[in-house]
Amino acid sequence: MLNTDTVMPASIAWFIIAAFSLLWVWLGWWLGRKNDTLDDYMLAGRKVGMGFAVATAMATWVTSNTTMTAPQLAYQLGIWGMVGYSLGAVGLMLFAPLARRIRTMMPHGFTSGDFIRLRYGNTAWRIFLVISFFYSLGWLISLGMAGGLLINALAGIPYAYGMTVIVVVCTLYTVFGGLKAVIGTDFVQTILILVGVVILAVLVINEVGFDAIHAQLEAERPELLNLLLPASIMFLFNNLFFGVGEIFHSNVWWSRAFAFAPGVGFRAYALAGLFWLPIPVVAGFIALAAPALGINVPSPDMVAPLVAGKLFGLAGAILVFVVVFAALASSLDSVLAATSDLIVKDIYKGHIRKNATDAELRKAAVWIVLGLGAVTWILSVPKMATLGSLLHFTGAFVASTIWPIAVGLLNRRGNGVLASAAMVLGTGSGLIAYFTIGFYVAALVSAAVSMLVMLLAFRTKPTFDWALLTGSHSPQPNGETS
Amino acid sequence: MLFRAIIILAAILVPNSSAIAAGLTIADDGTNAGYVTLAWPDAAGNTFELKEKTSQGWRTLYTGGDRATTLSGRPDGTYEFQLTADGASVGAPVVVTVEHHPLARAWAFFAIGAAMFIVLTVLLVKGGRDVDAHENQTAA
């Protein structure tokens, strides 16, 4: 066991897990009971309104990474760690104009892979799929890990048990309800997350106080207060571009752009970014109270639940448990659903069964969600890294896709060779930076190299025909471009 | 096949947080950023004490049953730690050297990020306008 100083009896933890599991699974079944078509299951009928759209964008972006990794980064990198994490909101805001563009240009599109295939051809598409799956798996594993760590930190239940329950529950309700269930549960989960995080921050300030926190940090961990801490300065834009890369490329966000009713995407993403911005700062601040409270932090990604448990005893532990469980579930289901869409359309339909009917694809989607859940569980069992280092490892991959996507969506210049080179060279450079400098520069280096390659696009002629994207709904005999 | 290879590669390459050793080990090395996680996953005993050497002698950082601790916010310097289990020393002291990145390097990364952010924002704003104009022209 990582943490031996727990405040919540295991019986209470199991009761909360059981109650919320039943709630999410029932909601998933109830919301998904009228799913008839593949569009219903994968894209919630393409008519999600503003309220649900903002809630799902925000809830999906408030993940275990926000509620557990933002405190980790505050604990490791100080003030700029949590501020840098909040720059992840920029990704949502910058995606707002792209979401509008995607919805208009590809009214019948299904996945981000659709776009890359049609815009850049098969080679770039396959490179993109590798990057996207690698990232999705990294995200899924981090969510599974966060579940196990959370339950262990608060209740002492072994990591593997907690992780298993989280993964199984989220997989089950995603299977039952598809994207409609994911978005519906996101709405409830958003309210729980927002209320819980605000209550916790107010309680921490009241109980410990700014002065005590500041005094202890100044004496024991002065660099956390240093606004010129070099690693933190390097981290600021790295995290911004990591967030931009995650959102621009991931089918989690594209599937929502396709699912939102016409005219909703721009405002939904802009508002979600604005509402999300302060959450990492609030969550991160909680971590800075740990030294003043004399809490031992065995793993930095456990710091938030440890502080809440120590400060507020059982009630605080239950509050954190509910908040993080909601945040975890809201993201795990989204990544499962969106990754399954990508596999169904781009791998199964695109490479394996090119003539599959919608009914066959609908059935395949269920098995793929179950398979993804199983793979996530297997890869989460050995806790391979801290949440922060695992996530930022994937940053090297996703940041390389920013420029091919932005240029490809907004400009008729650029081709598959440049896009492929940008993704491969960007990822390679990002990985080198990860291992030679630190996790806090991997995405930045990857995006910079990718940009340099894609700038060459502006020396080519504008030859791409936008009509190729608009026609993405036309059933093609094979999944590939001719 | 490629996909499987990448997963295996990641499992090998991502820093492992559960190093297997009997004494005090560095589980997460962030010494260029002022933090480090010290762990003793396989040390025998029930109650552990982690001590740090100071100019006044050894001071206790942690006492209890946990098997790791994370230190952060450390300035440049050399730090020495010793673990005891149920009152007996475990292994030799571990020396950790914190050396932050040079500030010039940090600002260089910051400048690259800021420049890239400006270029991306211009592309999104200007590119969107160009596309709208092109579509309006096509529709007319």
What does this structure look like?
The complex is a heterodimer of chains A (482) and B (140). Helix content of chain A is 77%, strand content 0%. Chain A is built from 22 helices and no strands. The N terminus of chain B is likely disordered. Chain B has two helices and seven strands. Chains A and B meet through helix 4, helix 6, helix 8, helix 11 and helix 18 of A and helix 1, strand 2, strand 5 and helix 2 of B.
Please tell me how large the radius of gyration of chain A is.
22 Å
CATH class of chain A: Mainly Alpha
Biggest sheet character of chain A: none
Give the low-pLDDT segments of chain B: 1-21
Strand order of the largest sheet of chain B: 4-3-6-7
Structural class of chain B: alpha+beta
Say what the CATH topology of chain A is: Sodium/glucose cotransporter
Strand fraction of chain B equals: 35-45%
Low-confidence stretches of chain A: 473-482
Class by SSE composition of chain A: mainly alpha
CATH topology of the largest domain in chain B: Immunoglobulin-like
User: What is the helix tally of chain B?
Assistant: 2
How many β-strands of chain A, per DSSP? 0
Order of helices and strands of chain B: HEEEEEEEH
CATH architecture of the largest domain in chain B: Sandwich
**What is the tally of beta strands of chain B?**
7
* Mean pLDDT score of chain A: 83
* Beta-strand residue percentage of chain A: under 5%
Largest Cβ-defined interface: A-B, 69 and 59 residues
- How many domains, in number, for the residues of chain B? 2
Layout of secondary structure:
The complex is a heterodimer of chains A (482) and B (140).
Chain A: H1 10-32, H2 38-43, H3 50-61, H4 64-77, H5 79-86, H6 88-105, H7 112-120, H8 122-155, H9 159-207, H10 210-220, H11 230-249, H12 251-259, H13 265-276, H14 279-288, H15 290-293, H16 303-352, H17 358-380, H18 387-398, H19 402-410, H20 416-436, H21 442-455, H22 467-470
Helix pairs in contact in A: 1-9, 3-9, 3-13, 3-16, 4-5, 4-14, 4-16, 5-11, 5-14, 6-11, 6-12, 6-13, 7-8, 8-9, 8-16, 8-17, 8-18, 8-20, 9-14, 9-16, 9-17, 11-18, 11-21, 12-16, 14-16, 16-17, 18-20, 18-21, 19-21, 20-21
Chain B: H1 2-13, E1 25-30, E2 35-39, E3 48-54, E4 57-64, E5 68-71, E6 77-85, E7 88-98, H2 103-139
Antiparallel strand pairs in B: 1-2, 2-5, 3-4, 3-6, 6-7
